[in-house]
Amino acid sequence: MRLYSLSVLYKGDPKVHLLKAAYDVSTFNFFQRSSVQEFMTFTSQLIAERSALGSRASVKEQEYLCHVYVRNDGLAGVVIADNEYPQRVCFTLLDKVLDEFSRQVSKMDWPSGSPATISYSALDGYLSKYQVQIP
């Protein structure tokens, strides 16, 4: 059971943009890592874009399961995991991350934010913490 990506996005009026993300591509071949990371970023944006405000969904993409939660305020989270990772745990993680993110990052920064401008460093910690085997 693995988590590969944890992203926070903003579903604005014209389109969705990435605010912050963490990736674990260590299980991939060194030469594949950047393209796998690009695929995960693109897929996260696409799934958030196609999800309605206030919705949760799990979407199968190739051998991955992408879990998305879009809050009513436009803040969205996406977890990309393997097929064995429990869906309930993914949504618990998304709830926790989005709540914490909305408390630490001003809502005024969401529409114009980018990974370079948003200062929120907890995603890597959550990704590794939730990487542990679930009994």
Automatic annotation (TrEMBL):
Keyword annotations from UniProtKB, A to Z: Lipoprotein, Membrane, Methylation, Palmitate, Prenylation, Protein transport, Transport
GO CC term, one of those recorded: Golgi apparatus
GO molecular function, one term: SNAP receptor activity
PROSITE patterns listed in its UniProt record: LONGIN
CDD domains, A to Z: Longin
Membrane disposition: Lipid-anchor
Taxonomy, superkingdom: Eukaryota
Cell location: Endomembrane system
Domain Longin: 8-127
Any single biological process term in GO: protein transport
Pfam family membership, one: Longin
Record family assignment: Belongs to the synaptobrevin family.
The name this protein goes by in its record: YKT6B protein
Protein's organism: Rhagologus leucostigma
